[in-house]
Structure formats: structure tokens, C-alpha cells
Amino acid sequence: MSAELVKAGAHLAALGLSPGSSGNLSVRQGDRLLITPTGADLAALDLEGLSVLDEHGTHVAGPMPSKEFPLHLALYRRDPAAKAVVHLHSRHAAAVACLPPWSPRSAIPPLTPYFVVMRVGQTPLIGYAAPGDPAQAGELERLDFPFRAALLQNHGPIVTGSSMRAAVDAAVEVEEVCALLLLLGDREPRFLADAEIRELTGKYGTPWDMGARLA
Questions:
Q1: Is 4 a catalytic residue?
Q2: If pLDDT is split at 50, 70 and 90, which confidence band does 211 have?
Q3: How many CB atoms lie within 10 A of CB 177?
Q4: Nearest by Cα to 68 from 82, 88, 93, 91
Q5: Residue tagged active-site, from 68, 173, 175, 176
Q6: pLDDT tens, residue by residue, 53-108
Q7: Cα(140)–Cα(135) distance, rounded to whole angstroms?
Q8: Residue 176 a catalytic site member
Q9: Residues 166, 211: Cα–Cα separation, whole Å
């Protein structure tokens, strides 16, 4: 898993989704969390340079971890099946995180089947906090509905996956659907219909609230 984390960092950086030293990645291995260190360049990670935390967030080995580690821990506590977390400052997703959410449970509307169920699902907007503020992790953990990804207000996306590959694919999909949303601008798009969403969620089991959107 640690080799997959290093490979994922290089891949995301090559896609332009991790400018400078932004973003952080982690994988869960038993009761240990391997996470990118503070100020790390995702394009230049190495196996020996990862931070190691225990399940309570205590730093047990390696360099100092990213200050965003409370968000990673919160997502792992929420979902025992989660094995990897990707947090980026990717441009389009960060822009959508500066806008009002589409609904109480998803900042992003149901534009494509790949976003709605095949890779991501509903993506709530988490209220603004300074990077590293554990209160934001607490807000994320307390949400009483399922999700695999979230947008941190005025900040960027964070996603989980059952593997690092799944988390990376979901992070890329979030960025792509946010780019599509911004490209549409003020035009009224066609969203997936409720029946289409039900068909997809029934097949793939991805969380999506069928309730009313925000006005």
C-alpha cells in the first residue's frame, strides 16, 4: 500500500491536481496510518519519507505528518471499509467549494453517471475552517448520512476509497465533474432524472439522497 501511495502522488501531480506542495494522501494498514508529511511534494514522495500514525493520531515514526491528518482519521473512523484518503487543492473542485452547495447533502449536482454512482456519489460541503483545525474533522465525522467524498469550503476535495486506486479515481472524477459544472456557467443543465439515479444507485450501491435540492 505504501508503494501505491507514492505512485498515486506522482500520478496526481502529473495530472496537475497537486500544485506545489499542496494536497496529502494516506493509506490505512491495520492499526497504522501512513500519510504524506507536512509540506510534501506529491511528485517526489519516497517510501522511507512517509509519516506513520497510530489509530488515535499519535505520531509514531517518520517525519511530521500533514496538518490535515485529523480529516483522514475522521474518514477512516466513519467507514471501516476505507483504506485510502486523497485530499487535493485541485483547481475546479476548489472553485466549486467556494460556491453555495447544490443540496444539503451534495455540493455537486447529479451531472454524470460516473460522478453520481460509479465513482463518487453525494459530496457534501463541509463548513470552512483553517487548514488543520480538528473542529472541521469533527464536523465531517458527525454527518449522519453516508458519503465517500466531500468538499471543504474554500479549500478543496477530500475522498476515500477501498483502495488507493479507487480513491484516486474518485478524486479525478470530482475534479472533472466540477470542471464540467463550471464550464456550463449560468446555463440550465440537464441533471440525471430521479429514475435514472435510482437505477444506478440500485446497481452500484452508491449513496445519493433523493431529497429536494436547495432553492
A1: no
A2: low
A3: 24
A4: 88
A5: 68
A6: 998 999 999 999 999 999 999 999 999 999 999 999 999 999 999 999 999 999 99
A7: 9
A8: no
A9: 27
**CB atoms < 10 A from the CB of 107, how many?**
27
What are 155's three cell numbers?
479549500
As a three-state string, the secondary structure of the chain is: CHHHHHHHHHHHHHCCCCCCCCCEEEEEECCEEEECECCCCHHHCCHHHCEEEECCCCEEECCCECCCHHHHHHHHHHCCCCCEEEECCCHHHHHHCCCCCCCCCCCCCCCCHHHHHHHCCCCCEECCCCCCCHHHHHHHHHCCCCCCEEEECCCEEEEEECCHHHHHHHHHHHHHHHHHHHHHCCCCCCCCCHHHHHHHHHHHCCCCCCCCCCC
Residue with cell 449522519: 144
Q: Which three cell numbers stand for residue 169?
A: 479515481
Q: Exactly one of 4, 114, 141, 199 is catalytic; which is it?
A: 114
pLDDT per residue as tens digits for the range 159-180 = 999 999 999 999 999 999 999 9
At residue 12, what is the residue type? L
Q: Which amino acid does the sequence have at 32?
A: R
As given in the structure block, the three cell numbers for residue 171 are: 478524486
Q: Residue 144 corresponds to which amino acid?
A: D
Distance CA 28, CA 83 (A): 5
